[in-house]
Write a structure and sequence with these properties.
homodimer; Endonuclease, Chain A; two-stranded antiparallel sheet; 9 strands; 42% helix; 17% strand; elongated
Chain lengths: 246, 246
Amino acid sequence: MRVARAFNCHLSLADMSQQMSCKELMKVLGLGAVAFVLGVEWLNWLKRRLRDSRGPLKEVLFFPSPQVCVEHLFIRHKHFPCACPLPHGVETSFSRLLVHLLSARVSLDLCVFSFSHMELSRAILLLHKQGVVVRVVTDRDYMTITGSQIGALRKAGICVRHEMSSAVHMHHKFALVDSRKLITGSLNWTLTAVQSNKENVMVTEEPELVGPYQQEFQKLWEANDPANHKPQYTNGQLNIKTCKDK
Amino acid sequence: MRVARAFNCHLSLADMSQQMSCKELMKVLGLGAVAFVLGVEWLNWLKRRLRDSRGPLKEVLFFPSPQVCVEHLFIRHKHFPCACPLPHGVETSFSRLLVHLLSARVSLDLCVFSFSHMELSRAILLLHKQGVVVRVVTDRDYMTITGSQIGALRKAGICVRHEMSSAVHMHHKFALVDSRKLITGSLNWTLTAVQSNKENVMVTEEPELVGPYQQEFQKLWEANDPANHKPQYTNGQLNIKTCKDK
């Protein structure tokens, strides 16, 4: 009985489609497409509402972080054959830090006291290569210590400014991703800090926190513009490097 | 005409009060008192609602901070006669930091790499004297440098634990006030950091941020319990100090 009903139904639908003119069919298909688009839009709206109800991103990372392979964060091939001996597919505080940094699409403003970590330097160079506008403010004394990556950044064309006063340390350790995500804490960008020390990093998109740090960065960026300072000479050589702003 | 009406009204009210019995007067006064209390409660509720609508406390402080008199934060006499030559009545990043620390009523958990600032030490000692349970975790190497206040805290009976491993730096710089307010940033508790360096401190009551830091403190507190570590001797002398937990 059920089969017969289904058959009748099938027949009547087939008849309908035969009876429908091409114009009507187009109408039905058009309305279906509109309904589909509206459905997708509604789902996106629902997703945004759910995310907004949790509030802006707030994440806390603690260090030291165990050493794991982070190669997949730099080279995003689907089947990336990494043969290194480190553990793979493990999420750590350091890999989360890298993920947040590499999420930059427009700009990265970095204010860091000490910067000698190779992988973090690689991340910054990659962003610069991808067209992200990178600006760095660092400490005058610590930028020249052994292993500092500041030279590598400058060599690649990244604009770096340093604290002009030798009596003051630029001791901040924060980054601003696309002017909307703040990464800040006690962590200097060194291997010891990442792998050995007890450190903390907070990642937030809370506008009330991001705003003041963005203003502080801009203040330091302008205050340490070499164009506003008299060049200083040591042994007859100019010791303030200039950079080409983007 | 208006004066006459007001006069009549005044007369009738006077008559009413004369006609009211003592019992009725008490009723009116009682109702008035209830209305007043309800009004005050409603205003407090409105205040709380307005505060809640702004979300939990979020404050960012940048350093260096200009040197001003902070004596009034320690001694809260109404007419405190401070004769020091520093500017008075000025709010700075440092005075805000002190205000937040001195707001502790129950507990203060402090995790700080380097601690030599005299005024900050004074604040911690005052809280301890007032009965606030203070716990400090610090760095093994930096707690013995010249000017360190760790000895003064221990001498006053405050329980201090230090990072047990000599290969690791306890590089955090955060404090938890009453387990609900987080103070964290790049600032070590030194005079150079407060008065000279470019530093940042964030103060927040956001539970999603306070929670992880409270857990981290507890983890470090337990991990560095001298009772769980073998005593180490240098030149025949015990070099791990024990403390009496509260």
